[in-house]
Amino acid sequence: MNVKKGVRGHMEQLVITGQKTLSGEVFISGAKNAVVAVIPAAIMAKGKSVIENLPSIEDVTSLVDTLKNIGAKCEFTKDNALIIDSSEVNKYCATYESVKKIRASYYLMGAFLGRFKRAEVAMPGGCNFGTRPIDQHLRGFKALGADYTIQHGVVKLFAEKLVGCHIYLDMPSVGATINIMLAASMAEGTTIIENAAKEPHIVDTANFLNMLGAKVKGAGTDVIKITGVDELHGAEYMIIPDQIEAGTYMIAAAMTGGDVVVKNVIPKHMDPLSAKLQEMGCMIYEGDDSIRVVSTGNLNPTTVKTMAYPGFPTDLQPQMTALLCAANGTSILTENVWDNRFQYINELKRLGGHITVEGRVAVVEGVKQLMGAEVNATDLRAGAALVIAGLAAKGVTTIGNVKYIDRGYEKIEHKFQAIGADIRRVKTIS
Ligand code: EPZ
After folding, report:
1. Is 413 within a domain?
2. Which of 110, 117, 404, 422 has the most CB atoms less than 10 A away?
3. Domain count across the chain
4. From CA 101, how far away is CA 422, in angstroms rounded?
5. What is the distance in A from the centroid of ligand 1 to the CA of 208?
6. Same domain for 402 and 288
């Protein structure tokens, strides 16, 4: 790698002056975890698709760059839509260079396998919390009739043909459910996925596949039935709102004793968090596509257990831990989905959090006042948790590794400024 001597890079930081009460309206963008599945799905169709309500986040740009490398014509429109013409797509390879920044690149395996019966995709990169295996994905592909090898970090899949089958997942894996759904959409015959994950972004991907001409039934339940078709055509589709972005702003409102309306949401998707915030003493008012969170800042301690949907989402676990630091008493949070999603806790402790971690359990003692400090995001949602803590801390908090946050949050500083936060993005010379 030719690093020029003496040329220093630019790093970005978020600088927050805390203790501002948040109030006003924040508009939620399209769901990151839906769009990173829908974009690969679009290349299964021979034709043009238009994907609307696209969040402008790094993961989307990384994926679109990859699609351009394999011959897809991609064009962003001014009203945050993406036009993908995949008629000319003629490659089924995604190198490490093009996929290393985004874990969800593994959806290219199911999409390439579906359309080309072949796939060569580098193993996923992405956030660094715990091991992130793909054995259930590969098990599903094998059950559909594909063989694979893993050489030099690249998964090579090949199938004479894909034949529908009956797959029982060992755990309700979001990625495996979606990846198998993609490949099975163009298999011969019917595939049943049991113990399927039920997250909103799985339903969104299934709805998009059906717009392309696939036949997917039961998404959102733990049994999904896919009847394979020979060809898929382009379609227009609007991505659902981002459940995790919405939850992040709801928790920030609770943390600062604020009064915030999150707009463009599906209230049902927020149920597990809304229930917890009410338990902690917040008032929650639901509209058709909005949720208002009113907090006195006086928060009761509680217990939180992360689970697959419709349980409490693991992707709101770091943000919730930050909130529990401000509760009047001791809370217990158990991470049941990932085996090591507490790496950010040391950063929260630098802000004054009193937290002890034993395996998958974090014991959080509420403190009177968090204090500003210099911290670094260890991954996407950890970064969001540090922003939330910084908003309540006394004094100034600077957050490094903002690139992690930009992977999943569109214009985070602008959205927080619009509801009263004193937050800005600064460039530093590294
Ligand atoms: C998706 O990851 C999300 N990412 C994650 O969000 C989210 O935390 C996770 O689902 C759980 O909701 C995207 O959608 C791009 P899993 P995924 O397969 O699909 C184990 C964010 O912040 N497992 O549901 O990789 C795994 O180790 C990101 O937006 C296997 O053992 O998660 C974990 O313990 C972070 N073998 C559990 O299942 C497999 O083959 C759940 O993983 C697959 C998973």
Report:
1. yes
2. 110
3. 2
4. 30
5. 21
6. yes
Same-domain check for residues 110 and 255 = no
Last residue of a domain, one of 209, 238, 267: 238
**Domain with 167 in it:** 32-238
**Looking at the structure, do residues 204 and 297 belong to the same domain, yes or no?**
no
Q: 423 is written with which tokens?
A: 């937050």
CA of residue 428 to ligand 1 center, whole Å: 33
What is the CA 390 to chain-centroid distance, rounded? Answer: 22
363-411: pLDDT as tens digits: 999 999 999 999 999 999 999 999 999 999 999 999 999 999 999 999 9
Most ligand 1 atoms within 8 A of CB, residue of 29, 35, 109, 132 to mutate: 132
- Residue nearest (by alpha carbon) to ligand 1 atom 16: 173
Whole-number Å distance, alpha carbon 418 to ligand 1 midpoint, is: 32
Determine the pLDDT at residue 36.
97
Contacts of 258 (CB under 8 A, 6+ apart): 21, 22, 23, 252, 293, 294, 295, 419, 420
Rounded Cα–Cα distance for residues 121 and 92 (Å): 8
Structural domain includes residue 7:
no
Query: Tell me, what CATH number does 119's domain have?
Result: 3.65.10.10
Distance in angstroms (rounded) separating the CA atoms of residues 292 and 284: 6
CA gap 82, 27 in Å, rounded: 20
Find where tokens 């959806």 sit: 107
Inside any domain, residue 421:
yes
Rounded alpha-carbon distances, angstroms, from residue 428 to 7, 11, 15, 399, 404: 13, 5, 11, 12, 16
Q: Model confidence over 304-341: pLDDT tens digits? A: 999 999 999 999 999 999 999 999 999 999 999 998 89
**Is residue 343 domain-shared with residue 384, that is, in the same domain?**
yes
355: pLDDT strictly greater than 80: yes
Q: Active-site positions?
A: 127
The three-class DSSP label of residue 16 is: strand
User: Is there a single domain that holds both residue 250 and residue 395?
Assistant: yes
145 and 158 in a single domain? The answer is yes
167: tokens are: 């797959």
Q: What is the mean pLDDT of the chain?
A: 94
Nearest CA to ligand 1 atom 42: 173
The one-character DSSP state at 22 is: P
Residues with CB under 6 A from ligand 1: 32-33, 36, 103-104, 127, 132-137, 171, 173-176, 197, 314-315, 337-338, 380-381, 408
173 C-alpha to ligand 1 centroid (Å): 6
